[in-house]
Structures are given as structure tokens and as C-alpha cells.
Amino acid sequence: MFEGLYFSKFSFHLEARDTIILPPYKGSTFRGGFGHAFKRIVCSARRRSCDECLLRKRCIYIYVFDTPPPEGSEVLRKYTNVPHPFVIEPPLDPERMYAPGEPLVFSLVLVGRATEYLPYFIYTFEELGDIGIGKGRGRYRLTKVVQNGCGGETAVYSASEKALSADRRTLTPADLPTDHGENTTLTLRFLTPARIISRGSLVVDLEFHHLVRSLLRRVSSLTYFHCSSRLELDFRGMIESAAAVTTVERRLRWYDWERYSARQATRMKMGGVVGGVRFRGKLHDFMPLVRIGEFLHVGKGTSFGLGRYMVENGG
Description:
Layout: E1 7-16, E2 20-21, H1 27-42, H2 60-65, E3 86-89, E4 97-98, E5 103-111, H3 118-131, E6 140-149, E7 152-158, E8 163-164, E9 185-194, E10 197-198, E11 201-202, H4 208-226, H5 235-243, E12 246-255, E13 258-261, E14 266-269, E15 272-280, H6 287-296, E16 309-313
Antiparallel strand pairs: 1-5, 1-6, 2-4, 3-5, 6-7, 7-8, 9-15, 9-16, 10-11, 12-15, 13-14
Helix pairs in contact: 1-3, 4-5, 4-6
């Protein structure tokens, strides 16, 4: 059903070297710090604007952060950029201050061809540890990287040995949990703010068809642009079926936060809904898509870790 899509998920284990002070939502700190360090590491023309650079079409930074649609693309023709092929999942714990020696763990999801660039991500986050993050730029050390799969965890990088394992594998939708039965109810819990857009506005009173529309857009575009494959789905039929699913309980609240955009030199509102929602209806056929969304997130701002949810029950 979702042939061609593949991705990997990794946990990055850090240890504070200094006192690290982070904001309540840590996604902006990790995503922003990574972006600056990544460009500094991979950019060959440091003083040039990316728009004027002759290496733009072959640049890893451009591919990861400003992926342009391929010439002649039939999908998202009106968009100047396509979805980022990575998701940074920040720590969800409420702690804001980490003393020297204390651990931090965040996750990284890479989609399609971006899975080949894991060494660049590891090297960048090691460099970011020397630069420092958060208020006062507290430093950390990267101790190890672990690959997360449905069958468990596998260590792929050891900082002490400076060794990256070649024994890494990607996940496909076929590897994800299989939901048996009729699946007449589904409960989701949004762990980070979900910014789902419908008719040009952010959705507050989430309905199932809002979720399905957003997931279909995201999964199909990631598959097309980063996995070089095209999903053969009945999009119209799936959306019509999703509209028949009812919302029986909604325990969602708005979570507001903002980040500073150096590129736009302004502070940007990035709020979204968090909490639980329960749906009822014919859900079985949608479960593969919902399970994919647990890894790839949903809505806007996914590279900051937004739109992360988990299935609390699916049967």
C-alpha cells in the first residue's frame, strides 16, 4: 500500500559537560543549533548566499534544509521547497536544567536518501556539543547513537571508539505494528504541538479527515521526493471514507510557543494542539497510514519535532 517509502530512527545519547539550560519546548534549540552547525561543516562557499552558489544542486545542506522540487516534477509544482527528509524529536521530559554529567536523549528520523547522510548528522551533533546549546551555550558530549526498530535497539555509533557500524537497516511500512481486528475505535495522544492546516487555517477541533488529509500529503510527498517512488493510492476515496469517521472524545488543548528565525530575523509563533482524541468508525484500512505517522509526524514544523503522536489503542 505504501511501497517505496523507507526511513530510519536513531536515538542520540548526550551527557552534559556544563550546566545546560533549555526552554520548555526543546525542539527549536536542537533544530536551530543543528542547522547552524551543519551549514558551517558542509558549506564549501561560506561567504556566498545559497541562492547564488554554483554548488546548490549538489549541496548536502540544500538537500536537507531547502530541498527544491526536481525540474519537471509533477508533484507540488507550486511549492519552492519540499518537506525536509528529517525529523528531530527533542526530549519530552519537563526538565530545563541539566547539570554536568546528566544525560539527555533525543531522536532523529531520516527519510529515504537522507538515511545515507547519518554520518554527517552524527558529526554535526558532536561539533554542536563543543559549540554549546541553550542559554549560556552549555556544552555536551555525544556518547552513543542507537538505532530504533520495531524489534528493539541496536548500537550503531560509539563516541569512545569513534566507530560507526555498517550494520544499519531501514524501516518500511511492512515493518510497523500490524493492527488486527475491525479497528472500530482509535485513540491518539499528541505529544508535541500538531500544526495541521485545513483551508488555510490551523485546526483546533481536530477531526479524523483532517489527520488523514495531512498524513496523505506528507507521506506521499516524502515518498516521491526522497524515496524516488510514487504512491498508488485512492486519495479521494480515502478522504471520503475518513470523513465518515466520528470524533467521540476530544481532550486537546492549545500549546503556544515561539522561535526566533535568523533567516527571517523575526520571532515566529509555532503553537499547536496537544493531548488526546478518540475516533470511532471503519478504521482498519487507515491503520498503516496512522502507524507511519507515528514515525514521520504530521502537520507543519515536523523538523522541529512538531506533530508527534502515539497510538494509545487501535482496536
